[in-house]
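Running this now, will post back.
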Amino acid sequence: MSSPAATPASARDLAQVEAANATGRIPVVFIHGLWLLPTSWDRWATVFEQAGFAPVLPGWPDDPDTVEEAHAHPEVFAGKSVGQVADHFCDLIGRLDRKPVVIGHSFGGLITQITAGRGLSQASVAIDPAPFRGVLPLPLSSLRAASAVLANPANYHRAVPLTFDQFRYAFANAVSEEEALELYGTFAVAAPGEPLFQAAAANLNPWTEAKVDTHAADRGPLLIISGEKDNTVPWAIANAAYKRQAQNEHAVTEITEITGRGHSLTIDNGWHQVADTALAFVRRFVDPTT
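Update: finished.
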């Protein structure tokens, strides 16, 4: 089954592409996951820009610019499939003058692996990535984290917000209650239900959009980062994705675990450690000065 046509890029995202192209630098495209916005990468963008790259922080189709707008109009998140989102990002990457590095978190980590499998990235980092077809483990903690959506089949076509308790378990279980509340208020928005249903059924559907070409000759080096205490994408899922990707005979595949970290590892107080880990890997294969 073919995936839907790519959604036209927003003026905001096209402006970012134009700005990255104007620098002549190698771009780094950051792809967020469910329940977050591109602004969740703002601090990462500064780190990579200072390292000589041109950061691009595009949204999913119809993403609002701010958390406040997202809260006012949560319905805009509904109706987004894995295939639609992947094609959206691949189309945007195709507008860059130089082949980018791609870094993604959660479902953004799945999209990152899809773009890599299409030969669109120089190097890729998938952080606590959502599972794809062939990744078999289904830990109880992951099912509980996804139950906010999967418990109601009607959520397939809806935009679904998380309550604070749901966010605390799925994202912020490894930080203090005070920080969890701050993260929830600063970053959490609604998310489309469809991708979670697609990932949950990926191994039952041969035509699923939640699939990755792990053997592509032009995939490029890939690092998978796993948070030790992640309830949503625990080690079993991340390591199963690594084992599938490590079968690629053409490119380096690595995995690392960040001790004591949960699913919020890209946005919580320890985000810099994760950014530095990703940057160190990227620098081994991509020279931003060339």
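The chain has a mean pLDDT of 96. More later if anyone needs it.
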